[in-house]
# Entry
Amino acid sequence: MVRKCLAAIAVVGLSVSTASAQDAKTVISNASKAMGVESLNSIHFYGTAQNGNLGQNNNANQPWPMAAMNDYVRAIDFSKATSRATWASYAVPVTGGRATLVVGTPQTQQLITPETTAWAQQLEIWVTPWGFLKGAAANNATVRAQTVNGQRYQTVTWNSPFKSPGGQAYRLVGYINSQNFVERVQTWVENPVFGDMLVEAEYTQYRDNNGLKYPAQIVQKRGGWPTFEMYVLGAHANPASLQALLTPTPPPAGRGGGPGGAGRAGGPGGAPAPTSEKLAEGVFRINGAYNALAVEFADHIVLFEPGPQNEARALAIIAETKKVIPNKPIRYGVISHHHFDHTSGLPAVVAEGITIVTPEVNRTFLMNALSGPRTLAPDSQSKSGKKPVIEGFKGDRRVFQDSTRTFELHVIQGLPHADGNVVGYLPKEKILVYADMFNLPTAEAPVPDPPVVGTGVFADNIDRLKLDVERIMSVHSLNPDRLTSVADIKASLGRK
Ligand SMILES: [Zn+2]
# Structure
């Protein structure tokens, strides 16, 4: 039976690929004619858009938070594989109040050139309906007929000349509908949390401008949720103003590189920062741009925030932990919350055989994300062949305890920043570790008015849980870098 099936698949496979070589040219040519792509060298389209912040959702199971991109304009020169998009963004201050215009080119302009950008950006040219057809015509595309949700499509596949860090060509798949319009394009790009992450763009409500067909609505999803949505108000083929549209906006005068991180890492010329410090017997702060806390038990170690930022940071945290607490396995790694700046090193944590501990609300998301293929950019997890082990704990607390020590995890309640945000608490040592709640007061506003929501929530939770805390360690280094106290936090709220 098995052999018969294999034989049947082989025959079918053969007939499809023979047919596709002949049909692909026709399908691409018909779609190019129908969409006005044949004489198209460049395009300009504009409208109103919004941008989804990948990995920063308030709940691991909900969409990425969206921010408006007003006056969105994109120009693409297909012959040179260059593109520029500009928009205006407004941000609400953390203390609330009126949104103000964001000034600064990285937040309001995207430039794409063949030399300087990764596929994550370059794909913005090739997943457009027009770019997809141009790429397909130039790159030995294949085609097959497919029915999706009762609709008949010609599915065209081609490999981009761009190569992933693992040396693979990035693949594109486009769905061409019965009107010969490109309705959906898929590609895959490496992502530290998702591995080979699907990028899917949908194009609907097609309109016409002098033979150029353009979708009035664009939805691009990454990691399952929209990262870009646009209502296209107009599009022009071969715009006369192309050079002006592609010319970068210079950065605003008189500005340096932005606020920059806290100075823990030791800048150029500065003394190298200590890589760890002992806070109590068997308790170490592992220092970096994102700090971790290593807690020693009789026969193992628990790490709080084991995988922030990226694989390199997670490997450094693991190495330093083994140095300060030798000859014991790191058994558990507790993440503060699911945001990707706190989880992008988790593949290295999985590779080390560490059980990831997090509230149940985050478990399924992380399990799915860390279980997909990781072929585009092989990492320590894919090389180890290990599967993620994730303990999702139910309820509001999880306690690690043996004859030597107690380390409690408490789930913070009422925090808008993220559901399932946990703090770690050492009752005997009176040490608390947390992330992303206490916003530092500034010189201008030592008591922010109105108060920062996260700071208030943090103080309320310490009171609610009746935690007896003397030293508070932040995953993000404070500026100046220090351990803080309940009194510090209450003072920044104007509370006693
Ligand atoms: Zn966060």
In short: The first strand starts at residue 42 and ends at 52.
